[in-house]
Amino acid sequence: SWTVTVESGVLVKDLDDALRQHNPPLALPSNVVLDSVRYGGILALGCHGGATHTRTLPDLVSEVTIVDADGNLNTFSESKNPEEFVAATVNLGLFGIIYTYTLRVEPMFNLLMTDRYPLMSEYFSSPEQGGPKLKAMVLGNDQTEIFYWPFNRSGLKATNDRLWLKQWSRTSDP
After folding, report:
1. Considering the entire predicted model, what is its pTM?
2. pLDDT score recorded for residue 150
3. Cis ω on the peptide bond leading into residue 24 (within 30° of 0)?
4. Collapsing DSSP states into helix, strand and coil, what is residue 87?
């Protein structure tokens, strides 16, 4: 399998540019839309990444190196001690300063992105109606993100509100 080790201050755009230069070009199986954020901030929180089968970005981490209060470098890996590794990967900065992350990558792939703006009531009017629709939507795409801002349409009624659904599916199209 392919891995890349990055310092925590690396921008998403910079890693993406570097991975594209590899032969073959590489990519993270899941990432964030913003390219101006840094991996230390993304990974230490235990969230981000909308991929259905890889879960969050911290799930791609195989090793993390942290500088502790005494200036020592401590490396945690899932192969050495899985319990310590999980705590170190998503540590919110409590173990020290995160120096590097090693992430699993794969050969680059193409995604088709679609944006939709359905009424919120299509998915959240009742569990019986919305639950199966949400499940089918998430499982039918490689990545899904749902955005919602209350009272985003005139009338100040939840029934008028719309969701913003971003969906990505792998494709062989250029």
Report:
1. 0.81
2. 83
3. yes
4. helix
